Amino acid sequence: MKSHRLWILTLALITASTVARAAEPDDVSPLPNAHAHNDYNHKRPLLDALDHGFCSVEADVFLVDGELLVGHDRRELTAERSLRKLYLDPLRRRVKENGGRVYREPSEFTLLVDFKTNGVETYKALRAILPEYADVLTRVESGQVHKGAVTIVISGDCPREAIAADATRYVGIDGRMSDLDSDAPSHLMPLVSDRWGAAFTWHGMGPMPPAEREKLRRIVAQAHQKGRRVRFWAVPALEGFWSELEAAGVDLINTDDLDGLQKFLLRPNR
Predict the structure, then answer these.
(1) What are the structural domains of the chain?
(2) pTM for this one?
(3) Residue of 49, 47, 42, 2 whose CA lies nearest to 20
């Protein structure tokens, strides 16, 4: 009798877990403008961002003895915190369980991989494993884009020439403001990012200077004309600041404050 009750309890827990996983995408509104900076620092890397509807996450990656490990610096690196285990494998599982999408509602999802070790060697290691995830990744073959549920963009020590030379490519390049005039196709450079303070002096206190507001809008318009999205890092987590980014059309709002940005982007009368 005791074993029978235990079996029923186990079955109930499994059923509840399955229902929770199946219901999760319906409970979350995907937020195309939300980017989780240093996502791996959260208690549940990737999963916390997904629970908040974020459509872009960032992972710093080090190549160590042939393995791609995730962390802010080398002291944090462990075999259990690999790019595969924290991001690639769970994203593939989620896409398969969710009918080919990260969220049930159609939305683009970006995995920004920031190389912290030699770009050529790190990319070589990454390129070797990405074909295993071809069923969920965006790829470019001879200039033709085959859109997948997840698009990978390389930042940091990005080996641009090696990436551009691939006939079959599973990644794009994160450009900089100096690339706004670049003629690189948008499938090769889908994103331009830069440190906010490199171009602006306003940091969210008081009104944004009109000249800087106009400059921001020109940058966004120029990037969009080339088919690229825009992101700034080292930005304050302030609603007034986010409002200016949103109004200017900045595509990815960079934050460590998942809850705060989610509430901001879902605010009534937005």
Answers:
(1) 28-265 (3.20.20.190)
(2) 0.89
(3) 47
